[in-house]
Specification:
GO molecular function, one term (chain A): 2 iron, 2 sulfur cluster binding
Number of helices of chain B: 17
Distance between the termini of chain A: 56 Å
Strand content of chain B: 25-35%
Keywords (chain A): 2Fe-2S, Iron, Iron-sulfur, Metal-binding, Oxidoreductase
CATH superfamily of the largest domain in chain A: [2Fe-2S]-binding domain
Organism (chain A): Actinospica acidithermotolerans
Helix content of chain B: 25-40%
Oligomer: heterodimer
Strand order of the largest sheet of chain B: 3-5-1-12-9-10-11
Pfam families (chain A): Fer2 (PF00111), Fer2_2 (PF01799)
CATH architecture of one domain in chain B: 2-Layer Sandwich
Strand order of the largest sheet of chain A: 2-1-5-3-4
CATH architecture of the largest domain in chain A: Orthogonal Bundle
Largest sheet of chain A: 5 strands, mixed
Radius of gyration of chain B: 28 Å
Radius of gyration of chain A: 19 Å
CATH class of the largest domain in chain A: Mainly Alpha
Shape of chain A: elongated
Largest interface: A-B, 83 and 92 residues
Number of strands of chain A: 5
CATH topology of the largest domain in chain A: DNA polymerase, domain 1
Structural class of chain A: alpha+beta
Bound molecules: FE2/S2 (inorganic) cluster
InterPro entries (chain A): 2Fe-2S-bd, 2Fe-2S-bd_dom_sf, 2Fe-2S_ferredoxin-like_sf, 2Fe-2S_ferredoxin-type, 2Fe2S_fd_BS, Beta-grasp_dom_sf, Diverse_Oxidoreductases
Number of domains of chain A: 2
Shape of chain B: globular
């Protein structure tokens, strides 16, 4: 019954793509030491999870500990299972639940977070790649900035599940393009599926946020 | 009533009180404290939208289960129909970190009745361990021959006369029935078969359920279950509680259902998830969270039946509708009872908002090995509208007239008869809506210059010369109180009192705020009636304190609003009686209007704050209970609303959709949807607008996103399979622009109903109630289908639309 299990998304963990997991110890703040045995542990665990059937009595899955900064705060998460997604670690281990688990398969954008400033889908990003990096979740912005304010004003009547992710994308868009056109707004938000509100609400919200950002200067 | 202080403590996600949890030593940030209260309910106010945007709004998946929480996973049958020969859970239980595995009998499953049925559940320290446990469970199936095609099942039943799989049958006839003998000179007949697939949100947030058991010492050294908290997205606690309690064999009182906000436009969580989380929590004595994945979404949530409709319409040379005959078959899946309301509504409304004197409609529900048919809110109205409008377009083409011409000529009016024999009562402002619609501008053609506005959007853009534009108009009519509706009721309590800051109103309601502003609506209602600005709405911790029945889709808000209205009025008359005594006027002369207490003759006119201050001195409280009951038919009795015998109340909407088609690259683009609605009476414009928006979104998804039916659960082939273009489903880039015209408000309030009756009209429903969302869903889907038909110059008969090149 492999359909019930989404190890598939960690396919790249198997043999020949291990270099994707190379971690630069100095990428984050230099104070951390690398967990030295990481690559072999990864390898080992990858075999354990990818080779069906999982030998039930083979003991606990391999775990590592991860150090990174989350919203500027250094954290160390011990015993992260090597196939855990970044989203799982953020939500279930660190209690940062603002990034949402929408589809778990890269379709909806609810889980968006920034990894070293780059938007990534938390559900498809292995937690291990955060080692030594800095992660930004929607919590970093609280509800103080223009973008959350505009989203709350225009999109509050929906369920709100998509809003934290859309907020991050909007901030990235406005940083790139201070006065985006309607088509640009639609395109940049097209990685987010909102099930409640038609695009008009979001276009209004982004325009309002753009104005507010401009006024602030 | 709940204590007022219960709410503010629970802005979850306000990060996270430190209290290191012994059972979860690996957590760096301490497990947040567990709390079992409703989320703050104010979807349209300020606080909740801000919490949503900041990611602090506590959906079920965000709620901390507390120390030792386990994760559940569900195993679903790969076979639609099978016997369970043998189940061995031992290997799964041997995996360290796996705490419980329940399968087969323990779940009440002895045989597989549908594909994706839950056959085993597991709870473990980590979600992946739970899934690994399920992989280790050894299940031996004896697959049988599945019956998956409702049409074949139906045909077989007809052939053999064995109707054991036919679960329900309805027939409505008017006049001569749909007599379609040889057409006379100049008459034309159009006959089409339509197919409706199982619609599914492409990536709706999966459900999440959190079950937290509470134990106490039983006095003999053991533990006794005190209560089970069940956090789940839920709009109707009574219905859901009953279902869970039956599945668990626990009394209703032992289960405390804590509603979580909705995610997306779902109608509640998958019952499988609820039962799995609850059973595992009881078995392990620990909190358990169950989250649905893609496989759960398909099996549990896409409970929407496939429907086949065969429709024959006859018109004369002028385009007047002479006769309509319809046969339809609904796939009820493994539990066809759930599809009966859908069958009823579909049969009653499949002719659409058109008058026709000779009608014959027959419908069947059959039982198959597909997942059980859920309620599919709005589904029947949507299917009916798509069929009715497609047939009118076809008939117009057949008699050589314009589609608009045919619609206007045959438009139904107040007083006309529906196929079920009821007379249409109240306002049916379709002509007004249609006029408003036709007054609007079409979007500019050709699209551009930005290629993102072309069909196919980025990267799939063809030449403008190959783009053809289609426009379609569709009308929809949605039934409000069906005749077979049994009694439903809701209750509320309203207390008018004061605190240091002046008068304040406490409303206790049985209605759940699902995060969409239901309580804001009640607040508005109480504010309007009592003239007091500060209103606090909440749901009692124990639902038994304010009884309510299960309420069908579309009527929940109405019933609860009415209950609050009645309670607020009763509280008001108590207060006014006191005021009248003080001012020595008759209480009948007093009323509250725009925050003032006034007499009809104007001799008294004072702000409520001032007047209430006098009558609310000390600890004075005016408390009243209110209740609203509705019944589909039967004798009216005091306190029960029953529509006048033989009358029907409907909501109407008129839509125009514009769709561009790239005839070379075979891509579609819905450009704009223009919507004109009768909203009865708009209490909260934001809410009404959001309801239209969500109806439109659902329609766009349904029409352009063929997905679930194509998917083989075992293969889990989950790519988009959309009609917009290869692999495309409607995202923010492809969604049409929505132009919403100002709401028509046809219900002029209860006060005028006597006058209306004298003039021979039926009164509008109390409160001017109209479920806007269902009408939007229906009219929008039909308009998009008509526009696509126009753009493709073809008559697609399958919804969701198949991508071009895939045969119809
Ligand atoms: S949860 Fe990651 S994209 Fe949907
Ligand atoms: S507001 Fe509900 S998904 Fe966007």
């Amino acid at each position: 019954m492999s359909e019930a299990h989404d190890f598939d998304q960690y396919d790249f963990l198997s043999a020949d793509s291990s270099n994707e997991l190379e971690i630069d110890p100095l990428a984050g703040s230099g104070t951390y030491t690398v967990v030295s045995s990481l690559p072999s542990q990864v390898q080992h665990a990858a075999e354990a999870v990818a080779g069906p059937p999982i030998p039930p009595a083979s003991g606990p899955f391999a775990t590592v500990s991860i150090r990174c900064t989350v919203n500027g705060e250094p954290v160390e998460v011990p015993e992260v299972w090597v196939a855990d997604s970044l989203l799982f670690v953020l939500r279930d281990r660190l209690g940062r639940t603002a990034a949402k688990d929408g589809c778990g398969e890269g379709e909806c954008g609810a889980c968006l977070v920034l990894l070293d400033g780059e938007p990534v889908l938390g559900c498809l990003t292995p937690a291990l790649v955060a080692e030594g990096s800095s992660v930004t979740t929607p919590e970093a912005y609280g509800d103080g900035d223009e973008v959350s304010g505009a989203l709350a004003a225009h999109c509050g009547a929906g369920c709100g599940y998509c809003l934290p992710g859309i907020g991050l994308t909007t901030r990235a868009l406005l940083a790139r393009q201070p006065e985006p056109s309607e088509a640009a707004i639609r395109e940049s938000l097209s990685g987010h599926l909102c099930r409640c509100l038609p695009p008009g609400h979001f276009i209004d919200a982004v325009n309002e946020a753009a104005q507010a950002v401009k006024r602030r200067g | 009533m709940d204590k007022p202080s219960a709410l503010p403590g629970f802005l979850i996600g306000e990060q996270l009180p430190a209290e290191v949890a012994a059972a979860a030593p690996v957590d760096v940030v301490a497990a947040p404290a567990y709390a079992a209260v409703d989320p703050p309910a104010d979807g349209i106010g300020k606080a909740v939208p801000a919490a949503k945007a900041a990611g602090r709004y506590p959906y079920a998946a965000d709620r901390p289960g507390g120390p030792g929480m386990l994760y559940a996973a569900l195993a679903r049958s790969p076979y639609p129909h099978a016997a369970l020969l043998n189940i061995d859970v031992k290997p799964a239980l041997d995996i360290p970190g796996v705490h419980a595995v329940l399968a087969g009998q323990e779940l009440g499953v002895t045989a597989v009745e549908y594909r994706g049925q839950c056959v085993a559940v597991a709870a473990a320290d980590h979600p992946a361990l739970a899934r690994a446990a399920l992989d280790a469970v050894e299940i031996t199936y004896a697959p049988g021959e599945p019956l998956l095609d409702a049409r074949q099942v139906f045909a077989a039943a007809r052939r053999t006369g064995n109707d054991s799989r036919v679960a329900a049958y309805r027939r409505y006839t008017l006049g001569e029935g749909g007599d379609l003998a040889e057409p006379d000179e100049g008459e034309s007949t159009v006959m089409y078969g339509y197919e409706f697939g199982r619609g599914a949100d492409p990536a709706a947030a999966p459900g999440a359920v959190l079950a937290v058991p509470h134990f106490a010492q039983d006095g003999h050294g053991g533990l006794r279950l005190v209560a089970l908290d069940l956090h789940t997205a839920c709009a109707d606690p009574m219905r859901d509680l009953r279902a869970v309690s039956a599945a668990l064999g626990l009394p209703i009182e032992a289960i405390h259902l804590v509603p979580a906000p909705f995610t997306g436009t779902r109608s509640g969580d998958d019952p499988d998830l609820r039962v799995a989380a609850a059973l595992l929590a009881l078995r392990t004595g620990r909190p358990v969270r169950a989250e649905g994945g893609p496989a759960d979404r398909l099996a549990g949530d896409a409970g929407t039946p496939a429907i086949r409709v065969h429709a024959t319409h006859r018109v004369d040379a002028e385009g007047t509708l002479l006769a309509v005959r319809v046969e339809l078959v609904v796939d009820g899946g493994a539990d066809p009872a759930g599809a009966e309301p859908l069958l009823d509504e579909l049969c009653r409304s499949v002719v659409g908002p058109y008058r026709c004197e000779n009608v014959d409609i027959q419908g069947w529900v059959v039982r198959t090995h597909n997942p059980p048919a859920g309620p599919w809110p709005g589904g029947a109205a949507m299917v009916a509208a798509v069929v009715a409008e497609a047939q009118i377009d076809a008939a117009a083409a057949a008699c050589g007239r314009g589609p608009l011409d045919l619609r206007v000529r045959n438009l139904i009016r107040s007083g006309d008869h529906l196929p079920d024999g009821r007379r249409l009562a109240g306002a049916v402002p379709l002509p007004e809506l249609l006029t408003a619609l036709l007054d609007t501008q079409m979007p500019p053609f050709p699209p551009g210059p930005d290629i993102r506005t072309f069909p196919g959007t980025v990267g799939r853009t063809g030449e403008l010369t190959r783009v053809r534009r289609g426009a379609g108009i569709a009308l929809a009519m949605v039934d409000l109180v069906p005749p077979e509706l049994g009694e439903e009721f809701a209750s509320a309590q309203v207390a008018l009192t004061s605190d240091v800051n002046g008068p304040i109103v406490h409303v206790a309601t049985s209605m759940v705020d699902t995060g969409n502003g239901q309580h804001a609506l009640l607040r508005k209602m109480a504010r309007e009636i009592l003239g007091v600005r500060r209103v606090i709405v909440r749901r009692p911790a124990n639902p038994a304190d304010l009884p309510a029945t299960a309420i069908g889709p579309g009527r929940t808000t109405w019933l609860h609003c009415m209950a609050v209205q009645r309670a607020a009025r009763a509280a008001r008359s108590q207060a006014l009686a006191k005021i009248a005594a003080q001012f020595a006027v008759s209480p009948q002369l007093l009323e509250v209007r725009d925050g003032m207490v006034v007499t009809y003759d104007g001799t008294l006119s004072k702000p409520v704050e001032e007047v209430y201050a006098q009558v609310l001195r000390g600890a004075a409280v005016y408390v009243a209970n209110g209740e609203f009951r509705v019944h589909g038919s039967g004798a009216p009795s005091p306190g029960v609303f029953v529509p006048e015998p033989g009358t029907a109340h409907v909501a109407v909407a008129a839509y125009r959709a514009v769709v561009d088609a790239d005839t070379e690259l075979h891509t579609l683009r819905p450009v704009r949807v223009t919507a004109a609605h009768d909203a009865g009476r708009v209490l909260l414009p934001e809410r009404a607008q959001a309801a239209v928006g969500s109806g439109v979104l659902t329609a766009v998804d349904f029409v352009f996103n063929a997905q679930a039916e194509e998917i083989d659960l075992a293969g889990a082939e989950l790519g988009g399979f959309g009609a917009l273009g290869p692999g495309q489903f409607p995202t923010m880039l492809e969604q049409p622009e929505l132009e919403l015209l100002p709401f028509a408000e046809s219900s002029i309030g209860e006060l005028d109903s006597t006058m209306l009756r004298r003039r021979g009209f039926a009164a509008p429903l109390p409160l001017g109630y109209i479920p806007v969302r269902r009408a939007a869903y229906a009219a929008c889907a039909a308009a998009l289908a008509c526009a696509t038909r126009d753009a493709l110059e073809a008559h697609p008969t399958r919804m969701p639309l198949r991508p071009w090149g895939v045969s119809n």
